[in-house]
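Name: YbhB/YbcL family Raf kinase inhibitor-like protein
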Amino acid sequence: MAIIGKLLKNRRAGEQGVAWYLPNLATDATFEITSPDFTHASPLPKVHASKRIGGRDASPALAWNAPDGTAQLLLVVEDPDAPMGSPFVHCVALLEPTLAELPQDGLRADDPAPGVSILRSGFGRGYQGPAPIKGHGSHRYAFQLFALTEPIDTIGGKPAAKAKPREVFSAAKAVARGRIDGLYERP
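Structure predicted for YbhB/YbcL family Raf kinase inhibitor-like protein:
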């Protein structure tokens, strides 16, 4: 498997493809996201990696201070270093505007933290931890949180829970945003 990673070493989706840069989500207003589990641009502990590679698929704890007037929060976790045409979506969730933090493992599909509604991601639902191809190098995992002007209940006449990630991104309008990136490289 490491040979495949080496062959794909220069193939990456790219930073410009993450939700952060979509016109409806890009805004100059920002807020800070922190985590007791990692700092920005530092490695994610193995507990947050995929079960397939020995982790626990436990989402990291996060904390933030969204602006007043936030109608809903949209959390998006993407890997812009995936060897694909667009970043791989590891998690999408809608959060109640009163939330200011998520506990570790709060993005489980079968038992999310209170105030969290889990949506579809790249494969299935809920947080899917890093599992980069061996030999592909370090990957960034962008934990992006968007303060929305209006809550998202339906998209194109169907419940938000049934929409594809890119449909959710397109339906959202952010007034502020925050981001923290973690790194993971498969040994």
